Amino acid sequence: MQALAWTILGVHATIIAFNVAGLVLIPLGAWRNWRWVRGFWWRLVHLLILAAVAAQALAGRACFLTLWQYDLSGNRNSRPLIAGWIDKLIYWPLPLWFFTALYVAVWLYVAFLWWRVPPRLPWHRHGH
Prior knowledge:
Elements: H1 2-32, H2 40-58, H3 64-73, H4 81-90, H5 96-116
Helix pairs in contact: 1-3, 1-4, 2-5
């Protein structure tokens, strides 16, 4: 079970890194005219993941990955160093209302980016 908890922690950290990278790279890429930041499918996944995070928070629920990882981790005091470090990076000891406000604000920002830096629709060809 510990290996599965580690896997979930790794997946969770990867998703968080993807989401944070998108928050920075979309406006930077728009400013620098990077075409890839307008890719439809990754932008849609980014928008939907953050919508799910905000919806879970608005419903008063923690992320399901957080719950699974905590349930599977067993004795949290005997975690290896790297897992403990990632745990502290991801799980902040703050009240749920803080995360709700943060996640909704982040989703609103991503929705704004969808409008301000619109993705290319996959069924429309641009250019040549």
